[in-house]
Write a structure and sequence with these properties.
The chain is an alpha/beta fold. It is 44% helix and 12% strand. The protein has a six-stranded parallel beta sheet, sandwiched between helices. A four-stranded mixed beta sheet has the order 1-5-4-13. Helix 4 links the parallel strand 2 and strand 3. The longest helix has 18 residues, at 207-224. It is globular, with a radius of gyration of 24 Å.
Amino acid sequence: MLHLNRRSFLTDKEKWEEKGFQLYSFDDSRVTQETIGHPTWLHVGGGNIFRAFVAPLQQQLIEMGEESTGIIVTTTHNMAVIDSVYRPYDNVSVAVTMHQDGRFDKNIIGNIVESVACTRSRQADWERMQAIFTAPSLQIVSFTITEKGYKLTDYNGNYFPDVAHDLANGPESTESGMGNLAALTYARYKHGEYPMAFLSLDNCSHNGDVIKKVIHTFADEWVKHELVEADFITYIDEKISYPYSMIDKIVPSYSETVQKHLQECEFKNNQVISAGNSQYAAVVNAEAAQYLVVEDDFPNGRPALEKVGVIFTDRETVNKVERMKVGTCLNPLHTTLAVYGCLLGYTLVADEMKDAELTRLIERIGYDEGLKVVVDPGVINPKAFITELLEKRLPNPNVPDTPQRIAADTSQKVGVRFGETIKAYGDKAKTLEYIPLAIAGWCRYLLGVDDRGNVFELSPDPLLQDLQAFLQGVVLGDGSSAKGKLKPILSNSDIFGSDLYEVGLGEKIEAYFEELIVGPGAVRNTLKRYIMK
């Protein structure tokens, strides 16, 4: 059996290679020693897209002789990821690329040389985090923590209790994840005001500004209450950069097909791992296509990632790419498939792409409505991007992506995925037909009853209870029961980026919704009525 650890790659190298695994060739001890002594890259959030996409980029540079240090990974909230997913396997993982023709590429990712918990409750880890943050060599602190990971307040705008504690008490006794990062930033300031970059790789609009606002919130309050020096604000404004980025790679949950393949390859560490309330594996599987566009603003230097396919450009271009992908050419289509897929009983996105009504709906949202207002960023062609998505990426049967996974946290996403296109239409927003139908589908999804009338489990969402409370009394089979129920949702500019009634779409979405709840089969019939006309 093949056991996932660094010693095994030396003692059983021939067997690993015989089973089709691509091993790394760099010197483990040298890269580890250099990384620990002179850290250059710390990543916050060690989830699947990091292991499948981000970490392999740096590994390629090490193999090419372009870099001598690996990446250190940390987490601010789920310490079990460190304890159960990283450390038991020497911080090594297997990245499987799932090709449309059924092939699996299996690469050992070994350049993550250290994993550290970002919490004061673990003294040794906290001291190590301080050492990393105060190292002059540190260039990048990157993030893949999803949109909700940056949240400091609840739905009512009140600070979470641990955040409120940190704002009031300063950097010496922080408790929240983001408060800890702000405290570590302050430590870097105190040790020499060394420059670095905070690089968000999450699908948030203007993601650099998102992390900048978080750090500023703590700094501003601490200066206001004379808990830190006023120059700390100057430091985070002038010595730290917050580049914009756009990342794209479909990284679904662990595939049973991949799991079976690895069993046949005599791979031992094949099980799903429970880490806190989340499920992981020592293996991460993903599609082959990938895009990363980054604003080139790194005051302490950066790896030569352009040599492994990363596009570096200016902020305006990144913003255009981000709007193209998140607000037009991919994420709106993904969300539409997610909510309607759940309603129609699908459990695989690739199967949804065989559904005439669903494929026609996302084609119309992308080609007919999105492309009319998207700005061509120049570095990626929008129409070609959509075509690749619809013809190659989403139909890939080997990518076990589910509408249920994509439907998670939709309330945190619709403002960008649909709201930005709605804004771009301006006074003509009321002419939109298919984006409103997608939004109506999300509202229908919130009832938790599928098109056959069966109850199904909704995906996690921080606003789920609040949203469902607005829909109390809505009954499948009685369109009139929806009267007035959607207004608190559709008028909420915090969700959609604007009041949908003010832009002329509220009533249209209400009308679609009423048709979607006429009774069992209404979802399918409504799609046929408006999509196949």
